[in-house]
Amino acid sequence: MVEEANPVMASAPIAPYNSSPLGNSSSPNASRESLKMEPLADVAMLPGEERVIDKDIIYICPFNAAVKGKVFITNYRLYFKNTDSEMPVTLDVPLGVISRVEKMGGASSRGENSYGLEITCKDMRNLRFALKQEGHSRRDIFEIIFKYAFPLSHGMQLFAFLSQEKYEENGWNVYEAMEEYRRQGVPNSEWRVTFINKNYELCDTYPTILVVPYKATDEDLKRVATFRSRCRIPVLSWFHKENHAVITRCSQPLVGMSGKRNKDDERYLDLIREANGTTKLTIYDARPNVNAVANKATGGGYEGDDAYQNAELVFLDIHNIHVMRESLKKLKDIVYPNVEESHWLSSLESTHWLEHIKLVLSGAIQVADKVSSGSSVVVHCSDGWDRTAQLTSLSMLMLDSYYRTLRGFQVLLEKEWIGFGHKFASRIGHGDKNHADQDRSPIFVQFIDCVWQMTKQFPTAFEFNERLLVVILDHLYSCRFGTFLYNCESARESNNVRAKTVSLWSSVNSDTSLYINPFYTPESSRVLYPVASMRHLELWVTYYIRWNPRIQHQQQSPVEQRYKELLVLRDQYLKKLEELQLSDSTPSSTHLTNSSTPNAATPNQHITHLQTPF
Known about the structure:
It is a single chain. The chain contains 21 helices and 14 strands. By secondary structure, the chain is of the alpha+beta class. The strands form 3 sheets. A 7-stranded antiparallel beta sheet has the order 4-3-2-1-7-6-5. Strands 10-11-14-12-13 form a 5-stranded mixed beta sheet.
């Protein structure tokens, strides 16, 4: 068994430098470098990607013996190819995926392959390379990987700003806030659009366009902002066209130890309740009760019954970013490099990963059910950019079939995660060497896992497939696109991300056939309620354990493969039918048409029969 290149990240065959199917790099430096280095015969270089160093090295493959080969480092990726085996062994790792680079062993280390490098990755794998011990042979490659994997720590740009990829479609146009709010049915007599944040003066982590209760003035909003953490006031995320109930999101109130109150905040939440005549506004606090109480010590807190008499407070018991980080770390320990077979179920349970997935899904179900029954809700955690985003986006996915389409899902991510300021830069650590930073956490990975769980329970409800989810997570780390860079909209704007980088959706929407679920059946009014019990949740094996070669060979579902084959067959029959109809309609074949009329129905009948199962 060998570890092969990830089929998603290494989907293109490796082509000679400057002859990439994606475009050409005309950098003179690149040309000079390529003269010094042997041609990289089978790597598809991206436009803007440049070779930095090649080196003979030994890859210590965890699924096989040590493999001799050559590693190629560019300003975007680490690529390894073996030279001493009939079986190809390749690695294609975007440098953005690297979390940590360490030296392994020393000049006096004994034992075979004890001197080299150990690389920890953000995508559930580690890489180990061995080099010869004489002459500090690892110094140059260590320094180059460290520099290019963490460009921001070295005063350099992320690769997204160097990329020269071109696509016909501009993915930055996928989401227009006003267009999306109009689709939902706002503004209306209950909700209005405000531009009070157009210069990010009200809240620097919110988008410029906000939807608020019609009766709330901009002065009201300013007063409410003083009582909400980070000034993240309650604003509309989703509007139910039939019953006019809404999902609103915000951060915790600044109650503190003394139990402070704010009449403007209390009145504002009442305006949200009154907008559709909800009897009691439900406030979903994502945190465990004990954590919410503890937050009072740092000036935060929650909405007390005495102050918010027309509201009901529900704690959802979802743990914080630190708990989630440790949970995923434990999961990685039991699945990489080898799966813990002997006590698999107890080992998986000890990570608590699926338990956390269950709690997030369960919370979102409660939100969706409350809104579906006609009651408006407020959702928050501490600052309103982690657990809050998980709950609002998942409940919207359950309630609104538009978000279950390929384009709609992109809109959902742009709106609830990117627009409303999930701290991608802090949570992922793009280009930053501080791997132990306590702000790192797999909150977005956890959300995508929840989406995957829903696609497993409702296989015909989503237009997109698993491949899209994996590609999104791969480029969450890769730094090839600008989509997930920085912490909020104001930071992206000041760094001119839309003009200087390419959107991930430009790539995805240039070939949508790769991401379409063949089983998709549109159902516009259907609300999805997944079963959030441990018996119905699964570990996402094809993501978390995909580097194991045994899993790679199981990734293509035979049912899906057969279905795709039948779709191709159907298209062939339809094309044949069109050709027959076209030839029948030409004047020169009038008598031919007449003579063959009795048989003309045969292809039609055959087509009808073929289409029935679909």
